[in-house]
């Protein structure tokens, strides 16, 4: 598998140029990845579904993917976009039929941001040639940005067995006050129930919930003593016969962003984001 960025000169016409040159090719399909929604946590499954639909046997699948970096809603969203690109290498590392080319417009990119994006790719293409990226974050450990602290006013609640109804009620009230649309309150309630249930079952039987609003976003944060070892947890569609493993998947499908930080020594933090439109 190859996942490599290409540094490109500034040109907003790159997508339209590609389409104009290849639109008549029967073997080429254009996919609007924004239909998967704003959450980058949904994109690995979207790629897998597209491959299953378009791939035939061992026929190679070659992609050119342009992530909408400038449309990132906030620093947290941008950080998850970078993590998604790193995860793609893990998701399809064993595939001999899939490869991705990722063009970047580096003319007006912040040097630090460009370096952070480059570290998510094992190969970099320059002057028409691929070369190994010495700064690539290999292995199973990804270097996450530190989570920003909650904004005041924030609500905090310690929870344990039997507190799911209280959690749903508190989150629903806070989310409504923050401006989360009525039709999304139900979605958030399902996601909160799934994450809180997982937290109680696998995080030592108790945890801490915090909620707050910032940057037109309502956030729910769950902290517990558990550890999530599977870096792909929640990003692969569960099979119909699968037992368990649906909580994080549902959270990714129902929320605008999901941040997961989990280590053996510090436990797990999961943040659910819902846009308020305010």
Which strand-content bin applies to the residues? 15-25%
What's the structural domain tally? 2
- The strands making up the biggest β-sheet line up spatially as 6-7-8-10-9
* Low-pLDDT windows of residues: 1-12
What is the CA-based Rg, rounded?
Answer: 20 Å
Mean of residue pLDDT values: 83
Please estimate the helix content.
25-40%
Gist of the model:
By secondary structure, the chain is α+β, with helices and mostly antiparallel strands.
What descriptive keywords fit this protein?
alpha+beta; 5-stranded antiparallel β-sheet; 3-stranded parallel β-sheet; 32% helix; Heat Shock Protein 90; disordered N terminus; 2 domains; 278 residues; 24% strand; single chain; globular
Tell me about this structure.
- The structure is a single chain.
- The protein is an alpha+beta fold and 278 residues long.
- It folds into two domains: 2-132, no CATH class; 155-275, Histidine kinase-like ATPase, C-terminal domain (Heat Shock Protein 90), CATH 3.30.565.
- The chain is 32% helix and 24% strand.
- It has seven helices and ten strands.
- It has helices at residues 14-22, 43-54, 75-91, 111-118, 164-178, 182-202, 247-254, and strands at 2-8, 61-64, 98-105, 123-126, 129-132, 155-160, 206-214, 217-224, 257-263, 267-275.
- The strands form three sheets. A five-stranded antiparallel beta sheet has the order 6-7-8-10-9, sandwiched between helices. The protein has a three-stranded parallel beta sheet with strand order 1-3-2, with helices on one face. A two-stranded antiparallel ribbon has the order 4-5.
- Helix 5 (164-178) runs antiparallel to helix 6 (182-202) and helix 6 (182-202) packs antiparallel against helix 7.
- The longest helix has 21 residues, at 182-202.
- The radius of gyration is 20 Å and the shape is globular.
- The chain starts with a strand and ends with a strand.
């Amino acid at each position: 598998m190859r996942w490599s960025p290409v540094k490109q000169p500034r040109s907003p016409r790159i997508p339209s140029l590609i389409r104009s040159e290849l639109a008549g090719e029967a073997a080429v399909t254009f996919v609007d990845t924004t239909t998967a929604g704003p959450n980058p946590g949904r994109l690995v499954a979207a790629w897998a579904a597209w491959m299953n639909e378009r791939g035939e046997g061992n026929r190679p699948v070659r992609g050119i993917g342009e992530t909408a970096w400038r449309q990132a809603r906030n620093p947290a969203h941008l950080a998850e976009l970078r993590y998604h690109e790193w995860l793609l290498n893990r998701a399809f590392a064993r595939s001999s039929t899939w490869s991705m080319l990722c063009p970047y417009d580096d003319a007006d990119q912040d040097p630090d941001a460009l370096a952070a994006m480059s570290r998510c790719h094992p190969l970099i293409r320059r002057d028409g040639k691929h070369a190994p990226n010495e700064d690539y974050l290999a292995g199973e450990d990804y270097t996450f940005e530190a989570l920003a602290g909650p904004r005041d006013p924030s609500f905090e609640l310690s929870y344990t067995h039997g507190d799911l109804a209280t959690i749903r009620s508190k989150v629903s009230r806070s989310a409504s006050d923050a401006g989360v649309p009525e039709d999304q309150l139900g979605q958030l309630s399902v996601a909160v129930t799934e994450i809180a249930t997982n937290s109680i079952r696998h995080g030592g039987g108790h945890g801490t919930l915090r909620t707050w609003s910032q940057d037109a976003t309502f956030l729910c944060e769950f902290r517990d003593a558990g550890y999530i070892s599977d870096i792909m947890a929640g990003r692969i569609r569960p099979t119909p016969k699968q037992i368990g493993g649906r909580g994080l998947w549902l959270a990714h499908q129902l929320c605008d962003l999901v941040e997961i930080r989990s280590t053996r020594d510090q436990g797990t933090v999961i943040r659910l984001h819902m846009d308020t439109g305010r």
